[in-house]
Amino acid sequence: MENLNIPHDDSSDGIRNKRGDWKPNAKPPLTPLHLFPFRPIKFLIYLFSWNGFFLNFYHIFWIALTMVCWFFLTPPVETLKTFQLDWISFLFIRNAVIILVYISFYHYHFYVKKGQGSSYKYNSRFLDNNNPKFWFKNQTKDGVFWVFLSAVPIWTAYEAFTLWLYANKYIPWMTWESYPLIIVVMFILVPTWRSFHFYLVHRLLHWGPLYRIAHIVHHRHSNPGPWSGLAMHPIEHLLYYTCVIIHWIIPSHPMVAMWNLFHASLSPHAGHGGFDRIILKNGKWMSTGTYPHYLHHKYFECNYAGDDLNILDKIFGTYHDGTDEATKLVMERLKQKKYINS
Ligand SMILES: [Zn+2]
Ligand SMILES: [Zn+2]
């Protein structure tokens, strides 16, 4: 604890225990805000305000990136009509470069440069580099391994197959000219659909056999870092990216389908970074970590949903709000499920 380097005073926003683990004072808000009890005006304001449910920096940035990729870094429709190794490889390399640059930004800042020391870090320990449970005994290398050998190939396969379906008109393609408003609404709804889909898939992954075969790979990262976000077994990636299948059924635009896949590929890394926030040069900060998901990695049987639909955990009795009482309840569940000995 004495050895912690805390260049940004985080004591007014949270507390540190004896081990040096930091937790925020504020309980995470139940979202969507103002839904229970239902306050319609506040609910609408929350849905559409800046940093509310839909509109925030991350969504705008990821949508912009999706658009750049669709307009400039995706082969023409004629090419997409037939499976060819060259254009599929191109998509693979494009996706791999995006992931490499994006995750490296967080990893370099937090864990290589240690740009903010342990300020706002949930777990006082940094990443494991001598632990046999990881590939190469190294947590970061383990993450890199699963991201490039499983996440990016499976993401690319879903993307290539979906684009091929669109190009051949095997699935309905809405045009901007005919349905501009509906396409905009679809863009807005993608993160919510993703959260709902993630919740269902995540519950399924905690079913005994699937957990032991597949999801355990992700949970080995009990103290996650940026490369942990997509550190998953191929079976989990196959399920995780089924979020795109909705576009095979509901008429949509290929750019919306790509946005769905980009959201799945880009949203986990900041949240797994292990830090509550990133402090910017001008002293301002941006939220990065999600304490509830950190608690999921720590205690397994809680907080299956992402932050923007954590109301689902509240409804189904698996919500952990960071309090000691919630920890007691989850420890009881762990004992019942024999994850730990009583
Ligand atoms: Zn996770
Ligand atoms: Zn899990």
Element order: H for helix, E for strand = EEHHHHHHHHHHHEEHHH
Structural class: mainly alpha
**Strand order, sheet with most strands:** 1-2
Count of helical regions: 14
Strand content: under 5%
Largest β-sheet summary: 2 strands, antiparallel
Outline, from the CA principal axes?
A: globular
Radius of gyration, CA atoms, in whole angstroms = 21 Å
Ligands, deduplicated: zinc ion
Q: What portion of residues is helical?
A: 40-55%
Mean pLDDT: 94
Distance from first to last alpha carbon: 29 Å
Low-confidence stretches: none
The count of strands amounts to: 4
If you had to describe this structure to a student in words, what would you say it looks like?
The protein has 14 helices and four strands. The chain has 342 residues and is mainly α. It has a domain at 57-121 and 142-286. The strands form two sheets. Strands 1-2 form a two-stranded antiparallel sheet. β1 and β2 (22-24) form a beta hairpin. The longest helix has 29 residues, at 139-167. The model has no long low-confidence stretch (mean pLDDT 94). One zinc ion is lined by residues 218, 272, 293, 297.
